[in-house]
Write a structure and sequence with these properties.
The protein has 54 residues and is mainly α. The protein has one domain (9-49). It is 57% helix and 0% strand. It has 2 helices and no strands. The chain has helices at residues 9-27, 38-49. The chain is elongated.
Length: 54
């Protein structure tokens, strides 16, 4: 994203949104979740809380 040219403001906005929502927020470790990424937290939660047949 740094030093990248975007032809329109909307293209830049979309690229920033995708970076935050698709890459950053899914991989960032979060203190309130025991320093797990959101994906790791969800996988751990599912293993503990979903019935075996689900």
């Amino acid at each position: 994203m740094h030093w990248h040219f975007y032809p329109t403001r909307e293209a830049a906005r979309q690229a920033i949104f995708e970076y935050i929502e698709v890459f950053y927020n899914r991989r960032r470790l979060q203190k309130r979740r025991g320093y797990l990424s959101p994906i790791q937290f969800l996988n751990t939660w599912n293993k503990r809380n979903l019935p075996c047949g689900a």
